[in-house]
Design a protein that fits this description.
about 325 residues; alpha/beta; four-stranded antiparallel beta sheet; 12 strands; globular
Length: about 325
């Protein structure tokens, strides 16, 4: 556990009015080894804290000193104490995990905690939400059988859906996973492409394989694909089927037509969960063709049993540069961040 909470040093805010909100917090920690893990290699997490919160952060033995705006320093203290508690359990904290704590604390405006940060657990890894929207998304998956994840690239919509599907499969909640995408680039006319059927569709479905390999052992993924426990197929292959006892994901749903979207949604069978993910700003359909995702969001909004979780560029976790790219495009399109 941490020692006494970091306290403002007497006299820290006595200067001019412009400095009245400034603080210097001294935060003690009892376990130096856990503190080292919490701060990251070469104190990389402190550098991230400085960059994200606009404060100064300096380690001195078993204490960390924070300087800057009082509100930012207090938030930094809360983040450090939260990550320190996780380090005490032996947990490895990645840069992404640490940034996730910062994002959660800033968005919730409360001290980060394990309760505030939703997570998904598979035998290979524990995936923790890195933004408030991601936590909302995971909790929607917990309580609802049909969830829409809508927003820009890099927000974790597909990855979290695949991780959640893997968790459900391992726990016996579902018997199989079905992952699908519309193969828009091929016009769904896969017969004209070289190779067998799997070789034809793999390039369009590769991101789904990558997500599976990250949360499940690759040899298990291959074995389950061969046995049919995991099925990865273009949207056209879903027609006429009823998908029961399955976790079903439709990725890149903005590239479906209204008829395709209705067809897919009505595949949902007994004891199944379905997730629809897509980015309305990246529609690749021919001009004049309406997006099935746009129509579904309008028609199904507020329908009992359906959750719609919206992500923005502030939820981009791929890297900061991606978030800035998304923001630039949104500005050009006249959207608010």
């Amino acid at each position: 556990m941490t020692g006494n909470r970091g306290q403002s040093v007497p006299g820290a805010g006595r200067a001019s009015k412009t400095q009245a909100a400034e603080a210097r917090l001294v935060i003690p920690f009892e376990d130096n080894r856990a503190l080292t893990r919490a701060l990251g290699e070469f104190d990389a997490h402190l550098a991230m804290l400085e960059d994200r919160l606009g404060i100064e952060a300096h380690p001195h033995g078993n204490v960390v000193i924070l300087k800057g705006l009082e509100s930012a320093c207090k938030l930094g203290r809360d983040v450090l104490e939260a990550v320190y508690k996780r380090a005490l359990t032996g947990e490895t904290i990645s840069a992404g995990d640490f940034e996730g704590l910062i994002r959660h604390a800033r968005q919730e405006n409360v001290a980060p905690s394990s309760d505030g940060q939703a997570q998904i657990s598979t035998r290979r890894r524990v995936v923790k939400a890195r933004t408030l929207a991601q936590s909302t998304y995971i909790r929607a998956l917990d309580k609802t059988d049909l969830v829409f994840g809508i927003g820009p690239a890099g927000t974790g919509k597909t990855y979290l859906a695949v991780a959640y599907a893997a968790q459900c499969l391992e726990r016996g909640i579902v018997e199989r996973i079905i992952l699908s995408r519309p193969a828009v680039e091929a016009g769904e006319r896969l017969g004209f492409l070289p190779g067998d059927m799997r070789e034809k569709v793999d390039p369009y479905l590769r991101p789904l394989y990558d997500a599976l390999d990250d949360v499940l052992p690759p040899d298990k993924v291959e074995k389950d694909i061969e046995s049919g426990v995991i099925e990865i197929a273009p949207l056209a292959f879903m027609r006429g089927r009823t998908l029961s006892n399955a976790f079903v994901i439709l990725d890149e749903a903005q590239n479906t037509t209204p008829m395709q979207m209705k067809m897919f949604l009505t595949r949902l069978g007994e004891n199944s969960k379905m997730v629809i993910t897509g980015d309305p700003s990246q529609i690749d359909l021919p001009p004049g063709i309406k997006s099935g995702l746009d129509e579904a969001v309008t028609l199904l909004n507020g329908v009992t049993g359906i959750e719609m979780v919206r992500f923005t560029q502030t939820d981009v976790v791929r890297r900061d540069l991606v978030a800035r790219i998304v923001e630039a495009y949104d500005r050009a399109a006249g959207k608010k961040p």
